[in-house]
Amino acid sequence: MKILVIGSGGREHAIIRQLKKNPLAETIYALPGNPGMTEAICLKADPMDISQVVAMATAKRVDFCIVTPDDPLAIGLVDALELHNIPCFGPGQKAAMIESSKLLAKQLMQLYRIPTAAWQAFTNTEEAIEYLRQQPLPVVVKADGLAKGKGVVVAKTLPEAETAVRDMLDKRVFGDSGATVIIEECLEGQEVSVMCLVDRYTVVPLLSAMDHKRALDGDNGPNTGGMGAIAPCPFYTEEIADICMRDIFLPTAHAMMQERVPFSGCLFFGLMLTKDGPKVLEYNARFGDPETQAVLSLLSSDLLEALGAVRDGNLLPEHITFKPGYACCVVAASQGYPGEFEKGLPITIEEGIEAAVHMAGVAEEGGQLVTSGGRVLGVTATGDTLRAAIDKAYQAMDKVHFNNKYCRGDIGKQALRGLEG
Ligand code: AMP
Ligand code: GLY
Q1: Which of 132, 164, 185 is the last residue before a domain boundary?
Q2: What is the tally of structural domains in the chain?
């Protein structure tokens, strides 16, 4: 079987490693992939160029394609590949709008009474600011469309919120993605990520996870693509999981069926566990990064079979099982990220590392791996306890070297406090 994975990050590397475990996965292509993905053959192409991807997949006689990043999903890469008889894991363009339009997601939640933060949408700056002035602080301002993970501002002050609105609506800092803004209530509580495989009505949750989005220890500094993750999340009890299944996961899948946009793929629920119960912060129409690296490291079932079952419409809960224990993924970034950073610095990894290394922002120069992105790589370790997984991940990180390496020192610390008090 020839498999094509669209994307180039640590998440895709973790998925490829799992696929490789199935003997049927004879060749795995990554488009564009990265030179650290030694298990795959990298195809040089732009995942946003639909006709190029379709032509390549056809030429390589790809049997199954997995589309993970948000942008290709949002422009309808899955629809195009399926039209050319290339079976795909991932939602079509319409279903992917649950992520690519926050307005549509909010409208869906409102219509189907799925718990989320109170909100209003605006296209007019003055009306938005008038509304802002009546809201308690902090308040959240969001761009409707995709904005490379930067479209959400949690504003502590009114001027901060007003600036966010003006940047989005007037200055169009996110282009058309900011043509509509959502102003919403700021929720308080523990944040948890739950990814579910969804095949129309069937919802099979993976292990819960906790991302660490801020650049600096103690959840300080700017938002990033994610500096580390742990799984499972100790705050996400079985009781809460049951509530989420009943009030959020199944109602969302059913709402999409009802609206004639059945979801097939991985539906990511960004949740806030508030004192009034779990509420949806955001939906993503794909696997999360770095949650996937942590969650899949505990997978005990066959990922290829599960993803194939989603595509073919016969997903069963038995397709997804996990080992006991915990996982911790720590990301090594380039100093300066998410702002400016230096590239082209040689990466060395000592022998005997006791963790999985997933490559992300790397390039090759004269046979040597060098840094090329903000988030360079991640190390993921597992252990019987969360503390053991964290310790192993940081020991492994000590064996990774490149100039200007930066990682957070407190991945999983908050979760540990939850477990150990
Ligand atoms: P997103 O880009 O949609 O993943 O949102 C980024 C982050 O903003 C989330 O992970 C939350 O930490 C935060 N956030 C989004 N919406 C809210 C909200 N209504 N209340 C509090 N925090 C929020
Ligand atoms: N870690 C959240 C995301 O992938 O958007």
Answers
A1: 185
A2: 4
CB 230 within 8 A of CB 210: yes
DSSP states of 86-128: --EES--HHHHHHHH-HHHHHHHHHHTT--B--EEEES-HHHH
Query: How far is the centre of ligand 1, averaged over its atoms, from the C-alpha of 298 (Å)?
Result: 26
Report which bound ligand comes closest to the CA of 375.
2
List pLDDT tens digits, range 246-290: 999 999 999 999 999 999 999 999 999 999 999 999 999 999 999
Distance CA 141, CA 119 (A): 10
| Ligand nearest to the Cα of 141, by number | 1
38 and 6 in a common domain: yes
Last residue of a domain, one of 285, 319, 353: 319
DSSP code, position 246: I
| 152 and 178 share one domain | yes
Q: What is the pLDDT of residues 177-190, one digit of tens each?
A: 999 999 999 999 99
Distance 152 CA to ligand 1 centre (A): 6
Task: Verify that 331 and 408 share a domain, yes or no.
Answer: yes
Residue tagged 């890469």 (tokens): 77
Q: Which atom of ligand 2 is nearest to the CA of 288?
A: 4
Measured from the CB, is residue 144 less than 6 Å from ligand 1? no
Q: Could you identify the atom of ligand 1 that is nearest to the CA of residue 116?
A: 19
Same domain, 331 and 414: yes
Phi first, then psi: give them for residue 157, nearest 5 degrees.
-125, 160
Host domain of residue 59: 2-90
Tens of pLDDT, residue by residue over 38-62, are 999 999 999 999 999 999 999 999 9
What's the rounded Cα separation, in Å, for the pair 56 and 61? 8
pLDDT digits (tens, 9 = 90+) for 219-233: 999 889 899 999 999
